[in-house]
Design brief:
single chain, 275 residues, alpha/beta, Rossmann fold, Pantoate--beta-alanine Ligase, Chain: A,domain 2, 2 domains, 3-stranded antiparallel beta sheet, 11 helices, 9 strands, 19% strand, binds pantoate
Length: 275
């Protein structure tokens, strides 16, 4: 496996190669990322590239950009074990040699709700870096985890609307044996908080169970779910049931997804389940 740090090196390594597979990451990898690498490897015969880049553009000033764990050596070992062929780990100056004035602005109806409402500009930062990485890597196939459900939806729409010739794969969320969705941010949790964190997936399941039992007062169902977390000290951004295809409000007969985001102590966690 090669570890490359410049765009020029990456372009030279990929020259003449087709069917490139791609898994963009911010590093501090866990099994969820490695599953995406394996998924992409199965989907293409070309080389598999994974990028590691903590993208300042998608963090708000008060968020954890500086604190975000940088664990390149360990990440490379894990990626090699998962069958990755090339790690692209550019410096900030390499990816953003000048202030990134040109940005990708996803439409408000996709990107200003839920995560975008609570993290304004987040999807501009994500779409801009992913579009730029797509231009650099020129993959045929790329994979993103369903854990970041809205991100996956925004990227799928970007690829369609920008005419990018890339197949986007969505990877199922990888969970701990107890049911906690794997996330690089779980590392911020104390042992006690890790236990309490299980309340998020459990409460999403309860929200789904309420809907499946025939309760149709969505606002009430969502409020009960939020209160269940708040009662245990969580600061809730949203607990909600939406349509899978556009994250509009849940409507009978549509494929639905329950999504939640809440802060436990200093750590913001998100999770979701499709139904
Ligand atoms: O999901 C992530 O890790 C990031 O948002 C991504 C897609 C690598 C863009 O920085």
């Amino acid at each position: 496996m090669q570890v490359l740090h410049t765009v020029a090196e990456l372009r030279a390594a990929l020259a003449g190669k087709s069917g490139v597979g791609f898994v963009p990451t911010m590093g501090n990898l866990h099994d969820g990322h490695l599953t995406l690498v394996r998924q992409v490897k199965q989907a293409t015969n070309g080389p598999v590239v994974s990028s590691i880049f903590v993208n300042r553009l998608q963090f708000l000033p008060h968020e954890d950009f500086n604190q975000y764990p940088r664990t390149l050596t360990r990440d490379c070992e894990l990626l090699e074990g998962a069958g990755c062929d090339i790690v692209f780990a550019p410096s900030e100056g390499e990816l953003y040699p000048e202030p990134q004035g040109f940005k990708v602005h996803p439409p408000a109806e996709l990107a200003d709700i839920l995560e975008g409402h609570f993290r304004p500009g987040f999807f501009i930062g994500v779409s801009t870096v992913v579009h730029k990485l797509f231009n650099i890597v020129q993959p045929a196939v790329a994979a993103f985890g369903k854990k970041d459900y809205q991100q996956l939806m925004v990227i799928r729409r970007m690829v369609v609307q920008m005419g990018l010739p890339i197949t986007i794969l969505g990877g199922e969320t990888t969970r701990s044996p107890e049911g906690l969705a794997l996330s690089s941010r779980n590392g911020y949790l104390s042992a006690e908080e890790k236990e309490e964190a299980l309340r998020l997936p459990r409460t999403l399941r309860q929200l789904i169970a309420g809907w499946q039992a025939g309760q149709r007062d969505l606002a009430a169902l969502e409020a009960v779910a939020a209160q269940r977390l708040a009662d245990h000290g969580w600061q809730v951004d949203y607990m909600t049931l939406r349509r899978q295809h556009d994250l509009g409000p849940a409507v009978e007969g549509d494929a639905l997804v329950a999504l939640g985001a809440a802060k436990l102590g200093k750590t913001r966690l998100i999770d979701n389940f499709e139904l």
